[in-house]
Amino acid sequence: MTRRSVVFAALLLLAACGGQTGGAGAISTLPRTNLTVFAAASLKPPFDQIGARILTTKNVSVTSSYAGTQTLTAQLTQGAPADVFASADTAHMTTVQTAGLLSGPSRLFAHNKLEIAVARRNPKGVHTLADLTRSGLVVVLADPSVPAGKYAQQALSMAHVTVHPASLELQVTGVLSKVALGEADAGIVYVSDIVTDGRVDGIAIPDSQNVIAEYPIAALKGASNSAGAQAFIDLVLSPDGQAILQGAGFQGV
Amino acid sequence: MSQGRVPAALLALAGLGLLFFLLPLAGLIVRAPWDQAIGAIESPETGTALSLSLFCSLAATAVALVLGIPLAFVLSKTTGHLRSVMRALTTLPMVLPPVVGGVALLLAFGRKGLVGSILYQAFGIQIPFTTAAAVMAETFVAMPFLVIAVEGGLRSLDPRYEEAARALGARGWMVFARVTLPLLRPAIFSGAVLCWARALGEFGATITFAGNFPGRTQTVPVAVYVALETRPESGIVLSLILLAVSLAVLVGMRDRWLGAL
Question: Which residue does chain B place closest to A180, by CA atoms?
Answer without folding.
Answer: B112
